[in-house]
From TrEMBL:
Listed name of the protein: Lipoprotein
Organism: Frigoriflavimonas asaccharolytica
Domain of life of the organism encoding this protein: Bacteria
Length: 140
C-alpha cells in the first residue's frame, strides 16, 4: 500500500512539472501583404532570451510544428517602435509565428490587423487549435 502511495505521489509530481511548447500563429490566406502592429504585455526582453525577438514565416499555409527549422521559412524584417510594440508585414499565402511559449502563457496583449485592434482573448476565441498552436486566419 505504501508503495502505491509513493508511486502515485511521484506520478503526480512529475505531471505537475510538465511543460508543453505552444505557439500563436497567423495565417494570411489573402493574395496581398497584411501589415500588423503587435503589442506585447511587457517588454520583450522580459520573456525572450538570446539576441532578441524574431518572427518566422513560411511561404505556405502550414501547421508544421516548428517554422524556424522548415526549409522554406524566412525570418521577417520588422520595425521596433519600442520595447513592447512591433510592426511586421505578413507575406501573402503564408503562416507566421508571432510567439512561441510554454503552456499557452502568451505575452501578446493585442494585434492590430489593417487598422483594427484585436486583443488576445478575441484572437484566441476566433482561432483554430492545431498541434498545441493557436492559428488565427486572415481571410478578408
Amino acid at each position: 500500500m505504501k508503495i502505491r502511495i509513493i508511486l502515485l505521489a511521484i506520478s503526480l509530481l512529475s505531471l505537475m512539472g510538465c511543460t508543453i511548447p505552444t505557439g500563436f500563429r497567423l495565417q494570411n490566406l489573402t493574395d496581398r501583404i497584411i501589415p500588423l502592429k503587435i503589442t506585447f504585455q511587457k517588454p520583450y526582453k522580459e520573456f525572450i532570451s538570446g539576441e532578441g525577438i524574431e518572427f518566422y514565416s513560411s511561404n505556405e499555409i502550414t501547421i508544421a510544428k516548428n517554422l524556424r527549422n522548415r526549409r522554406n521559412s524566412v525570418k521577417l524584417d520588422f520595425i521596433k517602435i519600442d520595447e513592447k510594440n512591433f510592426i511586421i508585414n505578413l507575406p501573402p499565402k503564408s503562416t507566421t509565428e508571432i510567439e512561441k511559449t510554454k503552456n499557452f502563457n502568451y505575452n501578446i496583449d493585442k494585434i492590430e490587423i489593417e487598422g483594427k485592434q484585436r486583443n488576445l482573448g478575441e484572437l484566441i476565441a476566433n482561432s483554430n487549435m492545431k498541434r498545441d498552436n493557436y492559428i488565427y486566419r486572415i481571410i478578408y
